[in-house]
Amino acid sequence: MTAPHGRGLLHLAAAVDQRGSFDAAAYVEPAQLAERGALDFVTLGGAFAPPGPDALGVLARVAPATRRIGLVPTVSGTRTESCHVHEAVATLDWISRGRAGWQSGGPTDAYEDEDEAEYEDEAEYEDEARFRAEGEGGTGTGTGTRAGSGDRGTGGFGGFGGRDGPHRVDFRGSTFSVTGPSIEPRPPQGHPVRVVDATGSSARRTAARYADVALLRVTGPAQARVLRAELRDAAAESGRAPDTLRVLGALTVDLGDGERAAEPGHGGGGPRHTPQGPLYRGGPVGLAELIAVWHESGAVDGFHLTPVEPRRDLERLVNGTVALLQHRGLFRTFYPGSTLREHLRLARPAGRYAVTGGAS
Question: Taking a C-beta distance cutoff of 8 angstroms, is the pair 296, 7 a contact?
């Protein structure tokens, strides 16, 4: 599907974080609202300073109450052992029937400068991303062997028997290693969608190699266009097809002004720079125009939006901004598929551990 200007349709996502709310039930309604707007996915766990709710646990509760929208918790192997996080995200993919992703929190998420928001431990962050990228249906480096060699079943959609079934873990990174048998079947999407904040230069290198979705916290379309091109070039240099990476602008949005025009410095060319990141303050109409201009110019493939006031701004985003973009033919009016990869128009990756005759 293409938009009237010839580019693919927009991708839109939103954060559903709520300050001080630890009850999983409180997140069901915002996720359902975002689903009514046909957003690609919602995120949880990265918008406000910790402590916050258990993002994985909350979205596991949200999954049965939704049918199509992607569910992306912020998780970090620096806080929880990487293999356990991997298994938990894979479980979310099974619970949601192929709608899970994960956003790497990294050692620090603070927005420092729109050109350089670095992580404290670059090597650990790189290892974490590589571990999950190479962990399709478990973990490994591509040299692991199949567990249960006597079983040559097809395994079906992530079944235990064939190429999507158990295998041996053999991951060696510079900061940690994981070895041993894995009995976890391959999740429905092959691997859940990987989302990386690629604002900093080191994070961009990681995103170009391993991410499915890269977020850019920048204040203007010209800068976004340069960084998107950099990400796509780096992806190609790492052996990936650039079109397997989606680049989204990341904005905080304050839609409390209703239908008023955007405040000076917030609309038109871009949002305002703040210590917390780019901020748009205005109405749904102005936000729709900003999104359309950035997308049509090739600056981004879409946007990830964080509401300042979760309930108020998400409702105005869906019923105002999204409705306008749909009317202009820039955003979908329904989900053509059922998995998050289908929403993002990303193929399900092939399994790493194909069963061959005589394999052991």
Answer: yes
Residue 121, sorted as left (phi over 0), alpha (psi -120 to 50) or beta, turns out to be beta
**Distance of alpha carbon 214 from its chain centroid, rounded?**
7
Q: Is the pLDDT of residue 161 over 50?
A: no
Query: Residue 323 belongs to what H/E stretch?
Result: helix 323-327
User: Could you tell me if residue 246 is left (phi over 0), alpha (psi between -120 and 50 degrees) or otherwise beta?
Assistant: beta
- What tens digit of pLDDT does each residue of 199-251 get? 998 899 999 999 999 999 999 999 999 999 999 999 999 999 999 999 999 99
Q: Which residues pair with 100 in a beta bridge?
A: 71
Q: Encoding tokens for residue 314?
A: 């998400």
Contact present, 24 and 61 (Cβ < 8 Å): yes
Mean pLDDT, range 61-68, rounded to an integer: 98
* CA dihedral sign, ordered 15, 18, 19, 21: negative
- 79 against 262, higher pLDDT: 262
Question: Could you count the other beta carbons within 10 Å of the beta carbon of residue 118?
Answer: 17
**DSSP 3-state of 26:** helix
pLDDT: which is higher, 144 or 13: 13
> Which residue in 291, 284, 293, 292 sits closest to 261, CA to CA?
284
